[in-house]
Amino acid sequence: MAFMTWDEIRAATGGRLLLGKMRGNDAFAGITTDTRKVQAGDLFVALRGEKFDGADFAAGALRAGAVAVMLPEPVSDAHRKELDRTPGAVIGVTDTLAAYQQIAHAWRMKFDIPVVAVTGSNGKTTTKELTAAALSGRGAVCRTAANYNNEIGLPLTLLGMTGEDTAAVVEMGMRGRGQIAALAAIAAPTVGIVTNVGETHMELLGSIENIARAKSELVEAIAPGGIVILNADDARVAAMRAQAADGVRILTYGIRAKADIRAQALRSACNETRFMVTYGGERHDYAVPLLGRHNVYNTRGACGGLCARPFPAGDAGGTFPSRAAEDAL
Q1: Residues contacting residue 57 through CB under 8 Å, at least 6 positions apart
Q2: Strands (E), 86-172
Q3: Fewest CB atoms within 10 Å of the CB: 42, 95, 128, 192?
Q4: Is this structure's pTM higher than 0.90?
Q5: Does domain 111-328 fall into CATH 3.40.50.2000?
């Protein structure tokens, strides 16, 4: 599947051609923010950080095979002079990070597949890995690598979606109010999972109530027709159901509380945990190669993620692949 054309990039970002030539239907081979990973035909996006300026590497990206580079305007005289001597196109935008996110959103919207977003104070990465493992039983799944769950890592994941994927599972981190809402606007998730609310980031948000409000932004972002999956054993998470839009399906999971997806008869043996799950009047036995009650919660959240794409009766039960657990830990 070809990547986006210049017309599509321009429509997504409002970018303009500063140097070189490009036709509207010229397609890029891919997109990168890392000159070490430039492939022939790529678009290089020059991000800025506290200790680096991607514009310093733009000419090098063109020499490495990129057909165009995207820089924030105004472009310095020194960068323009160097780029003017290097074959390739230069695209100007107001903010390269915002443009990168806009491109990622436009690319994600090309795929009519379930996109599952996971957030919470703890257990995000394990729940994400287990959800992806469960969904992968029916086809390829695009998922967040490691814990790349921020404003740069999330677009990177979405830009990795291909026509082979039947679902995507993304992790969303949070360092303050509004961040999860911003990430959700990029990913447009159809399913949201909230694992728990704890004291992580208390220094940034001041109270556990503020942390809960920040996590609930994912619930608010799910559009009608989507699914929200909440930990019923965490009172702050369970209360988020009131913030879901009309037309959003709510599923709960837990061990102690009455929940839609409930784990019972927990027992640990050697390097695995076994338990029984009740859901919709059915019972399934599970075994996961993970120890600890907290990982039972992570698995229940992942089971809720299966609702992103219906499985025939019985498919949800069984054993999660051990590789998923190894990758998650």
Answers
A1: 35, 44, 46
A2: 89-93, 115-119, 140-143, 165-171
A3: 95
A4: no
A5: no
